[in-house]
């Protein structure tokens, strides 16, 4: 009897045909490759990956902003820096008795030299600012020429109560001191004392205990400060960015007039009245004695007094440039992740509704085009301004993305949806950037509304992709 088991095995093998080795794809669940859920998470990962080039664009924006600030600083350094006008004061040399601790635990008294400043009792300042613009390359800075008139009334300063420790005052050393931040910008000074012209000013404050503070002074006689007297000054000087005044008088009144239409009032005190229009602004301050912390006699050797007097107790205005395109581009880049997500969302919704599929590489190209939009926006804003730059950059990149999406999803409806979606997206971003005070609120509401709409619009979507494959197994091969 012949054993034909081997032949049966052979016949069975031939019937089934050659066996192919199992590949990695055999372990992928049916429909996984076409699953919208998987595509959703891939697009999310791609969005996170695009934060790297977006961060590079943000660094580029910050670098260009720093370059602009350096250019403005250099222009100001040559024309005249931001000016702070302080004074006039009457400065006199004095002797101060100081108690010091000795090494053996005792104390000793020592006489040291100091300087006393006597601020005026009433102080009136009228400033007329003529703004100009200067350029360095593509960068523009606001500078000005200022005509300033001051009127200071001094009562009997010799009768004022002196600070503690002052034992002697040299009234023969009296001088009239006016401080100005950057003397390089000074053009003309005229000083009248009690109705008569005084000698030409001498550079420097002549106060050794006030290093780093520039200005000029007029030598006086002891008779000049004996009793009430008035000082009138007329100054013309250059500066940049802004002009501030220290309210040194016990009763200070300041007025400022300029043809610059965008003032930014700065310092410790806001104006009591102001008028701003397209042709310029007019403002005034009235500072009573109780509102400022300047004593009637100032010992300049007191710790922190110089900084307090010349830097803290000031008022004035800066010539603000409202078109700060670097700030707007910076804000736009900070919305970059949301913007890229919204762009992907437009494409993804079309993919869900159309039933067609867009490759993940196409999504990557779309995201990179959004990044190019920010680069174009930055480059064009430096030349054309933000509004024109945004129109050109959004029109170019949005048009390309919409046309590319329409070419992938053939059909008039998908074309209109792509064009409408990206037009609305770019328009919404511009509105958010324009709403400076409500940008965060507008962005949050927009994101909430869009996400809510997408959630309910796609609630019946087949995210797993099971309906895209056949669930019925193929018929088993016949044994015969």
What does this structure look like?
- This protein is of the alpha+beta class.
- Helices cover 38% and strands 30% of the residues.
- It contains 10 helices and 17 strands.
- It has helices at residues 5-16, 36-49, 51-79, 305-312, 325-334, 336-354, 360-384, 386-408, 412-434, 439-457; strands spanning 83-101, 107-118, 122-136, 139-154, 166-180, 186-193, 196-197, 202-203, 215-219, 229-240, 242-245, 251-258, 263-267, 273-277, 280-287, 298-299, 315-319.
- Strands 1, 2, 5, 8, 9, 11, 13, 16 and 17 form a 9-stranded mixed β-sheet that branches. It has an 8-stranded mixed β-sheet with strand order 7-6-10-4-3-12-15-14.
Summarize the structure.
The protein is 38% helix and 30% strand.
Tell me the total number of β-strands. Answer: 17
End-to-end span in angstroms?
A: 24 Å
Instruction: Give unreliable regions as ranges.
Output: 5-17, 22-33, 468-480
Beta strand % = 25-35%
Q: Can you give the helix content as a percent range?
A: 25-40%
Major sheet description: 9 strands, mixed
Q: What is the gyration radius calculated from CA atoms?
A: 38 Å
Helix-strand pattern: HHHEEEEEEEEEEEEEEEEHEHHHHHH
Mean pLDDT: 81
Shape: elongated
Question: From the helix content, strand content and strand pairing, which structural class follows?
Answer: alpha+beta
How many DSSP helices? 10
SSE order and pairing:
Layout: H1 5-16, H2 36-49, H3 51-79, E1 83-101, E2 107-118, E3 122-136, E4 139-154, E5 166-180, E6 186-193, E7 196-197, E8 202-203, E9 215-219, E10 229-240, E11 242-245, E12 251-258, E13 263-267, E14 273-277, E15 280-287, E16 298-299, H4 305-312, E17 315-319, H5 325-334, H6 336-354, H7 360-384, H8 386-408, H9 412-434, H10 439-457
